[in-house]
């Protein structure tokens, strides 16, 4: 069983986390506004994620520029080889 860590962070801190910690092959689950995007990271470059989505309703490849959507971030779940990190967005005020 993977260790789960829950963290409250500003949207800027979540963007920094994505840039520094998310790697190709990791699984991410993004909650942006009312949209839930689960998938496997194909590539990440300067905060731009290319994610392969394989859910029941949506399948395919999508590109998300997290920095442009940061004010709508609600939660990011990052699953790597040995752990799961859940980052919940707080107000940046």
Please give a structural write-up.
With 93 residues, the protein is an alpha+beta fold. The protein has one domain: SH3 type barrels. The chain is built from 2 helices and 7 strands, in the order E-H-E-E-E-E-H-E-E. It has helices at residues 11-21, 66-69; strands at residues 3-9, 27-32, 35-45, 48-54, 59-65, 73-79, 83-89. Strands 1-7-6-2-3-4-5 form a 7-stranded mixed β-sheet.
What attributes does this structure have?
93 residues, alpha+beta, SH3 type barrels, 7-stranded mixed beta sheet, 2 helices, globular
Summarize the structure.
The chain is an alpha+beta fold and 93 residues long. 16% of the residues lie in helices and 56% in strands. It has helices at residues 11-21, 66-69, and strands at 3-9, 27-32, 35-45, 48-54, 59-65, 73-79, 83-89.
The global form is globular
Order of helices and strands: EHEEEEHEE
> How many DSSP H or I helices?
2
Identify the CATH architecture: Roll
Strand order of the largest sheet: 1-7-6-2-3-4-5
Count up the domains: 1
CATH topology: SH3 type barrels
* CATH class placement: Mainly Beta
Strand content: over 45%
Major beta-sheet overview: 7 strands, mixed
Gyration radius, to the nearest Å? 12 Å
Low-confidence stretches: none
Distance between the termini: 36 Å
Given helix and strand content, the structural type is alpha+beta
Q: Percent of residues in helical segments?
A: 10-25%
Write down the overall mean pLDDT. Answer: 92
Secondary structure tally: strands: 7
């Amino acid at each position: 069983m993977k260790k789960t860590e829950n963290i409250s962070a500003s949207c800027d801190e979540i963007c920094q986390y994505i840039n520094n910690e998310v790697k190709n092959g990791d699984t991410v689950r993004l909650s942006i506004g009312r949209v839930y995007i689960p998938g496997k990271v194909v590539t990440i470059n300067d905060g731009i994620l290319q994610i392969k989505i394989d859910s029941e309703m949506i399948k395919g490849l999508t590109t998300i520029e997290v920095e442009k959507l940061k004010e709508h971030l609600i939660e990011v779940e990052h699953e790597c080889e040995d752990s799961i990190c859940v980052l919940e967005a707080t107000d940046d005020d």
